Amino acid sequence: MYTYDIQYVDFRTDQLKEMGQVDAAGAVQAFRSFPFKEQLEKAKGLSEPTFLTISFRSHHDGAILALWSLEPNIYEIYMENNAEKVTVDTKGEELVVEAINSFFSGSRSDLYKRLSSSPGAVTKRGLVNRLKSLFS
After folding, report:
1. Of 28, 29, 81, the residue nearest 57 (C-alpha)
2. Top-confidence residue, 71 or 30
3. Do residues 118 and 77 lie in contact, with contact meaning Cβ atoms separated by under 8 Å?
4. Nearest-CA neighbor of 71 among 91, 86, 95?
5. Hey, which end of the chain has fewer CB within 10 Å, N or C?
6. Where are the domains of the chain?
């Protein structure tokens, strides 16, 4: 089961709106209909805006895919899977839609590799995974 939640710029940092269950097609639609442009405009009038975020969660394994934007048509993709984390910036929707589809198809290890090899990607690997890579 997958669920998603959203956070608008005028929310407290610990405040989310739970949106319920979602599948891959619904997740892509939720991303495309998310009011990024309007919320970014609203953020300009706030003294301390919160990150505008849409997050997807797999309840089977706890994996998370989160997307946020600080500028129109520029997104940050964050993925957390098996104590590995990666964040990468991208312009446009292409990589975001690809990441959503891969996340929901269950090929999260491949998605992590693709995202972490992107230019400018920031990664953090858990101790067990770092040790495995050293000794393999």
Report:
1. 81
2. 30
3. no
4. 91
5. C
6. 2-135
